[in-house]
Amino acid sequence: MDAITAVIAVAGTLAGGVLSHLLQSRATAAANRETRDERRREERLEACVRYAAAVYDCRRMMSYRWYRSNGRGGSEDPSEVSSQAFDVRTTMMERLTRVQLLVDDDELRAAADAAAEAVAELYEKDTPAEEFRAARDRSLRAHDRFVRAAASHLR
Asked: How far is 71 from 61, CA to CA, in rounded Å?
């Protein structure tokens, strides 16, 4: 009888150890998934914030470039302003690429593309003032749509 009791005790201890290990492994895996998912969400959020800032900067720089090219405001050489505008636009496109790589939501990706396209409309220096203002307003609305889409996607 003592031998049976000892076997049952050992089997129970082993079963408890195995079950405890399995439960602990599942909990660890779930915690790791949660940590990974949160890190990825933070990466996407950072990419979207940086892209939104780049769109804003590019829109601002394109506006300044247009004003300088049309003899309005500022003392910088228009060719220097054009060079700076090109640099800012390159930064915006790099950050768009990062958003496209990190985000899998089609609506958010489309909003990011639309914001870049709207800012690209501001690139032409010879655009009449009224058309330029309309394009600038479209780019601001596209920027805002991207920010709203990012906010709803990254909650």
From this structure: 15
Task: Give the Cα separation of 43 and 102 in Å (integer).
Answer: 8
Q: How far is 119 from 62, CA to CA, in rounded Å? A: 8
Whole-model pTM: value is 0.81
Read off the pLDDT of residues 94-114 as tens digits, 9 standing for 90 and up. Answer: 999 999 999 999 999 999 999
pLDDT tens digits for 4-29? Answer: 887 777 778 877 887 787 778 787 77
Third-level CATH fold of 42-153: Four Helix Bundle (Hemerythrin (Met), subunit A) (1.20.120)
DSSP 3-state of 24? helix
Q: Is the dihedral of CA 106, 111, 117, 119 positive or negative?
A: negative
